[in-house]
Amino acid sequence: MTKVLVLNGPNLNLLGTREPGRYGTESLQTIVQRLMDKAKAAAIGLEAFQSNAEHELIERIHRAAQQGVAYIIINPGALTHTSIALRDALLGVEIPFIEVHITNVYARESFRRHSYLSDIAAGVISGLGPLGYELALYAALRNAKRS
């Protein structure tokens, strides 16, 4: 069975209440449940993990390699712009991943336009709101079947 891991970084636990004009009103739990339903319908395994701590995300990436995860979907939040350690963890496990951002990072502050992950990602989805997660899941499934 194909396994997909959905990782969410700092402050994404606040979705639905954090700046709803920018991030929308859907909670992370609602987004994850929709992904779980789609994964179940496609007969694949999906696990989701969120942490505000960089080291916990890194440790979860390391475990993913041991668990046979075929693809990672990651919204690293602000760690996108700061974490070389997250980049190194993703390079270290050699699991293909798709970087997802709810907002269009290119329409925001200039510091958000740099990602330590984009150049090593299989793809990047930015600015499509929660739909970006669903599109990433679709792409991950399609790409995993080709492997």
UniProtKB/TrEMBL annotation:
BP GO annotations: amino acid biosynthetic process; aromatic amino acid family biosynthetic process; chorismate biosynthetic process; quinate catabolic process
Domain of life: Bacteria
Amino-acid biosynthesis recorded as keyword: yes
Residue numbers marked as site, Transition state stabilizer: 18
Active-site feature positions: 23 (proton acceptor), 101 (proton donor)
PROSITE patterns: DEHYDROQUINASE_II
GO function terms (MF aspect): 3-dehydroquinate dehydratase activity
Top-rank EC class of the record's enzyme: lyase
Pathway connected to this protein: Metabolic intermediate biosynthesis; chorismate biosynthesis; chorismate from D-erythrose 4-phosphate and phosphoenolpyruvate: step 3/7
Keywords: Amino-acid biosynthesis, Aromatic amino acid biosynthesis, Lyase
Binding site for substrate: 75, 81, 88, 102-103, 112
UniProt-listed CDD domains: DHQase_II (cd00466)
Catalytically driven reaction(s): 3-dehydroquinate = 3-dehydroshikimate + H2O
Record has Lyase as a keyword: yes
Any Pfam family hit: DHquinase_II
InterPro entries: DHquinase_II, DHquinase_II_CS, DHquinase_II_sf
EC number: 4.2.1.10
Similarity remark: Belongs to the type-II 3-dehydroquinase family.
Quaternary state and interactors: Homododecamer.
Record function comment: Catalyzes a trans-dehydration via an enolate intermediate.
Listed name of the protein: 3-dehydroquinate dehydratase
Organism: Nitrococcus mobilis Nb-231
